[in-house]
Amino acid sequence: MGKASKLLFIIGCLNAAVAVTLSAAGAHALRAQLASPRATELFATAIQYHQFHALGLIAVALTLTIFPASRCLRWSGLLMSFGILLFCGGLYLQSLTMIHLIPGGIPAGGLAFILAWVLLPIGVARSPRRCKTN
What we know:
Distance between the termini: 22 Å
Order of helices and strands: HHHH
Largest sheet: none
Oligomer: single chain
Number of strands: 0
Low-confidence stretches: none
Shape: elongated
């Protein structure tokens, strides 16, 4: 496993752990801050997308072990990471404080997610396999 694959795998696993932790915190410790239905909805959306894209990072990392030269796969992992930070982070912040810290950050994070998912199959389609079978 190359450096990029290992890094994306670790980032994906850590994000999955953070998403589960935040989910538990939202159900228990943060209940008072999530009193309004809108805050609860924003937090739930952030958790859902965080979990999906943590698994997406793991998928990109594992795919990168098969196609290690793919720049599209590296970009896919980078964009998923930025998407988690901007989209999920923005929703977490907004749900807890109703503050929009970075105007346009949430839509930019959503766009990063879309581009990441588009680049994933492109990276696979455009890359030759590392090892050929006999």
